[in-house]
Amino acid sequence: MYEQASHALLNEILLDLKPEIGNFRLRHFYTRLGANFYNIHSLFHLLYGDRPDFKEQMVSLVETLALRYIERAPHLRKSDLARERDYNWFLSQKWVGMALYCDRFAGDLKGLRARLPYLQELGINLVHVMPILDCPEGASDGGYAVRDFHRVDARFGSNEDLEALAATLKKRDMLLVLDVVVNHTSDEHEWAQRARMGEKKYQDYYYVFDNREIPDAYEEAMPEVFPETAPENFTWNEAMGKWVMTVFNNYQWDLNYHNPAVLIEMVDIILFWANKGVDILRLDAVAFLWKKPGSTCQNEREAHLLLQLMKDCCQVTAPGVLFIAEAIVSPGEITKYFGDDAIMAKECEIAYNATLMALLWDAVATRNARLLNLGVQHLPAKLERATWLNYVRCHDDIGLGFDDNDARLAGYDPASHRRFLIDYFTGRFEGSPARGLPFGENPKTGDARISGSLASLAGLESALESGSEEAIDTAIRTIVLLHATILSFGGLPLFYYGDAIGMLNNVEYLADPAQRDDNRWAHRSRFDWDQAQKRHQPGTVEQRIFGALKKLIALRKETPAFSDFDNREVLATGNPNLLALYRNARPNARVLVIGNFNDHPQTLDVAPLRVRGLFQQDSMLDLCTGTRIALDDGMLAIPPLSFYWLTD
Ligand code: OTU
Fold first, then answer.
1. Which of 32, 390, 512, 595 is placed for a possible disulfide with 316 were both Cys, Cβ 3.0 to 4.6 Å?
2. Over the stretch 365-390, which tens digit does the pLDDT of each residue have?
3. Which domains occur in the chain, in start order?
4. Which entry of 103, 153, 284, 564 is annotated as an active-site residue?
5. Strands (DSSP E) along 346-497, which ranges?
6. Pocket residues: Cβ below 6 A from ligand 1
């Protein structure tokens, strides 16, 4: 695409826009459109250039951007400008997040507003409210089967309640994260209903086929996401008399982005929520956006082009709004969702660090950090203005998505090691204290994933049952160590509601027909406010966990070395039980993070670290305890399942 041709087209489009658009003062809009148009046009052309209605579709896209810009409230435009100026604002160590279900945590959106003091007490200043858009009654995949993208589900409140929440959060310097489910809709969405009624326009919004010919071709290479509950990737729709692609559950219809109208609708939806005051949008299942027979239909180049396009469009209308990529894929693929320089432009500023999450659980099960060290060392470099969303636990199952080569380097056979981890966390492994559940077991491939709450996986449930003080202590240490790692790693730490008070698995879901086949509900319990009260009673499990995490969060926020400016180095320690991270900010602000993942005390020979200027004296200050940790004959001792944040 030539820049000149691009400019000429922009001028034509501007003349074609609806007259009401011209009447507004669109100064920043035009500047931003000018700056991004070449990319937008090129990407749109790559995807849709061979269509006869290409230009009309371009006009419709630009119109969408303009209309949503006109609607954007003055205070949001102001925040856009401020964030454009301070464009690395989200890399700061000051942000600490939590993901929660507003109903399960606080009843509804109004209730959530009333519960903000709990989050603030812990130090949380970024809230990911799990899906709240209108969904059918009954099974809706935890809100990921959306019926109306423009409306908050009445069960949680109204759009006004959400705006009120956004305003309250803003006043408290807290950020709001919401989901946009870009890959699919509920089969009760208006588009699906109209498709079912035979409207061709809406059948073209989905992957719809008359017979099995193309579906069969697709199936040859497509894996199954939910093999137990939703095997295969197509569902027969009787009313329509056609097959429709349903990669996730059979009631979740995959949107067809080969159709530009779908992309334009989705850009409009993204901007709609941006205009409601949402700071960050979590784009669900982005790896799946583009389907092509013969491919796995994940991580396709076009999926990246679509995300670049969404980002560039957002830059024009709501540049202060960030995207989180939810791409639970292999380590080498995840970083591409930041935007690969090789293609065209940036994609998502933030991406789930599913690799670190899996590696941390590996360290818990093996009681060593061998694979963790390798995996972290080999984490692909990312763009500068991009950051990891680091988490230990979320609402989904745990997939063991570390790299096979790293597993081999650590001395494991990847398949049997994964088998061991599944056995360990589901309690099938003799002596394992973990109480997880197997999720998505696929006899065809041998794959499986893991459900269960963080505390139950870390051994707290079995420890409390046995009443063994030692086992309880081990579980609590494990929980705190895992969180200490995500807090000091570099990136945005995202806690999961319930984990800060050690909530265990919950079996209530088994009584609900809409949930009982999906054991991810075991770790999506109703938040127990009575249990939470115990966080103020010294000596309780809740207080031991909550108190420790609260302190660590406060320390993180005070420690500039924990911001994410690619200032992390993994140091070789010679001890496979330790993970040592050198967080290098200004010379005197650097921090040496050392975690011991073993249940026995470990020692570290600090001689090799002296070349980095560390341990010039025979002690260093541990930020967590405020005490100086002294060497013993050149050796640093680290107690079982614990960590230091050492500074000069
Ligand atoms: C996402 O999940 C959501 O987080 C899940 O809760 C939804 O069920 C799913 O999308 C469908 O909307 O697509 O890119 O391994 O990690 O389904 C990854 C299971 C996803 C999840 C996977 C994930």
1. 32
2. 999 999 999 999 999 999 889 999 99
3. 566-647 (2.60.40.1180)
4. 284
5. 350-352, 387-391, 437-442, 447-451, 492-496
6. 141-142, 144, 181, 225, 248, 284-285, 287, 326-328, 395-397, 399, 449
pTM (global) more than 0.90: yes
| Residues 345/308, Cβ–Cβ less than 8 Å | yes
Q: What is the DSSP letter of 616?
A: S
Mutate to test the pocket of ligand 1, among 247, 252, 284 (most ligand atoms within 8 A of CB): 284
Number of helical H runs and strand E runs in the chain: 23, 25
For residue 52, the CA-to-ligand 1 centroid distance in Å is 35
CA distance 6 to 11: 9
Q: Is 284 a catalytic residue?
A: yes
567, two tokens: 């200032």
232 is catalytic: no
Residue 591 · residue 583 · CB < 8 Å: yes
Q: Find the 454 Cα to ligand 1 centroid distance in Å.
A: 18
Ligand 1 pocket test, candidate residues 130, 183, 249, 328, most atoms within 8 A of CB: 328
Distance in Å, CA 229 to ligand 1 centroid = 14
Sign of CA pseudo-dihedral 158, 160, 163, 165: negative
CA angle 45, 49, 52 (to 5 degrees): 140
Q: Mean pLDDT for each 10-residue chunk of the chain (648 residues)?
A: 80 82 78 95 97 97 96 96 96 98 98 98 98 97 98 98 98 98 98 98 98 97 94 96 98 98 98 98 98 96 97 98 97 93 78 98 98 97 94 98 97 97 96 97 91 98 98 98 98 98 97 96 98 98 98 97 95 96 86 98 95 90 96 96 96
* HSE (side-chain half, CA atoms, 13 Å) at 403: 19
pLDDT digits (tens, 9 = 90+) for 518-527: 999 999 999 9
Q: Which amino acid is at 587?
A: P
Atom in ligand 1 nearest the alpha carbon of residue 354: 16
Residue type, 416: S
Question: How close is the Cα of 330 to the center of ligand 1, in Å?
Answer: 14
**Could you tell me the distance, in angstroms and rounded to a whole number, from the CA of residue 184 to the centre of ligand 1?**
11
What is the predicted pLDDT for the residue at 612? 87
Facing residues of 643 across strands? 595
Tell me the CA–centroid distance for residue 451 and ligand 1, in Å.
Answer: 13
Nearest Cα residue to 16 out of 52, 60, 49: 60
Protein residue with its CA nearest to atom 1 in ligand 1: 285
DSSP label of 119:
H
Residue 341, phi then psi, degrees to nearest 5: -55, -30
- Which residues make Cβ contacts (< 8 Å) with residue 250, sequence separation at least 6? 187, 230, 235
**pLDDT at position 191:** 98
Chain length of the chain: 648
Say if CB 5 and CB 55 are below 8 A apart. no
Q: Which two tokens stand for residue 591?
A: 């921090």
∠ CA 549-555-560, nearest 5°, is 135
Q: Which of 134, 224, 312, 326 is catalytic?
A: 326
Task: Report the alpha-carbon distance of residue 256 to residue 395 in Å, rounded.
Answer: 26
DSSP structure class, residue 223: P
Residue with CA at minimum distance from ligand 1 atom 8: 141
Cα separations (Å) of 394 from 193, 341, 398, 436?
A: 32, 30, 8, 14
Question: How many CB atoms neighbour CB 409 within 10 A?
Answer: 16
Burial category of 648 from C-beta neighbours within 10 Å (exposed 0-12, middle 13-18, buried 19 and up):
middle
Atom of ligand 1 nearest to the CA of 394: 4
